[in-house]
Specification:
Blueprint (H helix, E strand, L loop, with lengths): L3 E2 H7 L3 E3 L5 E2 L1 E2 L9 E4 L16 E4 L13 E3 L3 H11 L15 E2 L4 E2 L4 E2 L4 E2 L4 E2 L4 E2 L4 E2 L4 E2 L4 E2 L4 E2 L3 E3 L4 E2 L4 E4 L4 E4 L2 E4 L6 E3 L4 E2 L4 E3 L6 E3 L4 E2 L4 E2 L4 E2 L4 E2 L4 E2 L4 E2 L4 E2 L4 E2 L4 E2 L4 E2 L4 E2 L8 E2 L8 H12 L1 H16 L1
GO biological process, one term: lipid A biosynthetic process
Subunit structure: Homotrimer.
Pathway: Bacterial outer membrane biogenesis; LPS lipid A biosynthesis
């Protein structure tokens, strides 16, 4: 296991160290479970009472939490402990690579182009015309279709499927069993008979994009589906054809986006939300979990629609009232009319 001197970690996050610079740290742990060879952090004031009792070798804190630490504790003072934790987690990451070198069982077309230091796992398939940039890692069982391009340092975990004519930028991470470039749900109906419309638009994914396990991003019908730089998409999401997601937007698990939706920059979409197609969501919109978005969002703000969980008896009452809302409305109007008269 790799270890780190505490001063090295402090320099990595640009923090001010108070304590033993030569302390050896092996990993990161929660505040209440960390031991002498581990570093931890506090990012929420409600956990301050755990600072004094923590056995951590070192604690990352902000200036306002320093007074709650003892003189004997090793601390690193930063502006944002949670961001510092994220940076250290990357720096100390011991996650194995999806693949090492090029497996003998990988099937690679003769005219596929591979950059420097590319790794391809067992039973992966790289089809003709595909291009892999420098330091790309393709996990076991992956499929990269014809004429698709993957930028430098992008990683695909096992069993990812990249269809034909898909463009993926650099420094992306795609988790296992994601599907990029599958057909959009495009059909015409002629007297009850469904006529399939070939989806020829492809997918364009920017740089530093992360896509969760089992998420599907459909190719566009004519123009491409577009995911801009710095977008993060969780597991089990459905991104339909010709959706356009703007820079820095975060999409939580289980979200469904219908076709031709345009999502702005820096939006946050809560888990299990369902969003209608052929409309726009403005920059900076926040949709809480289980949101059902049927109309465009034109002003930045927080939007909610899911009904919170209730005990069953209370929910039955709520449901009854909801089902009778038309009758209640009619009675209310009648009372208002009588009051006016």
């Amino acid at each position: 296991m790799k270890t780190f001197r505490l001063i090295e970690l402090a320099e990595q996050i640009g923090g001010t160290l108070r304590g033993n610079a030569d302390l050896v740290i092996s990993s990161i742990a929660p505040l209440d479970k960390a031991q002498q060879n581990q570093i931890t952090f506090i990012s929420n004031a409600k956990y301050r009472d755990q600072l004094v009792s923590s056995n951590a070798g070192a604690i990352i804190v902000n200036e306002s939490d320093v007074e709650f630490c003892t003189e004997q504790q090793n601390i690193i003072v930063v502006k944002n402990p949670y961001v510092a934790y994220a940076i250290l987690a990357q720096y100390m990451d011991s996650t194995p690579k999806p693949a090492e070198n090029i497996s003998p069982s990988a099937v690679i077309a003769e005219n596929a182009k591979l950059g420097q230091n590319v790794s391809i796992g067992a039973n992966a398939v790289i089809e003709s015309g595909a291009e892999l940039g420098d330091d790309v890692i393709i996990g076991a069982g992956c499929f990269v279709g014809k004429n698709s391009k993957i930028g430098a340092r992008t990683k695909l975990w096992a069993n990812v499927a990249i269809y034909h004519n898909v463009q993926i930028g650099s420094d992306c991470l795609i988790q296992s069993s994601a599907v990029i470039g599958s057909d959009g749900f495009g059909y015409a109906n002629e007297k009850g008979q469904w006529i399939k419309i070939p989806q020829t638009g492809g997918v364009i994914i920017g740089n530093c994009v992360e896509i969760g396990a089992c998420t599907c991003i459909d190719r566009g019908a004519l123009d491409p589906t577009v995911i801009e730089d710095n977008v993060i998409i969780d597991n089990l999401c459905q991104i339909a054809h010709n959706v356009h997601i703007g820079f820095g937007t975060a999409v939580a698990g289980g979200v469904i986006m219908a076709g031709s939706l345009k999502v702005g920059k820096f939006c946050q979409i809560g888990g299990a939300s369902v969003i209608n197609g052929h409309m726009e969501i403005c920059d900076g919109a926040i949709i809480t979990g289980m949101g059902m978005v049927m109309r465009p969002i034109t002003e930045k703000g927080i939007y909610s629609s899911g009904i919170p969980l209730q005990p069953n008896k209370e929910w039955r009452k709520t449901a009854t009232l909801t089902m009778n809302i038309d009758k209640i409305n009619e009675r209310l109007k009648a009372v208002e009319k009588q009051l006016k008269e």
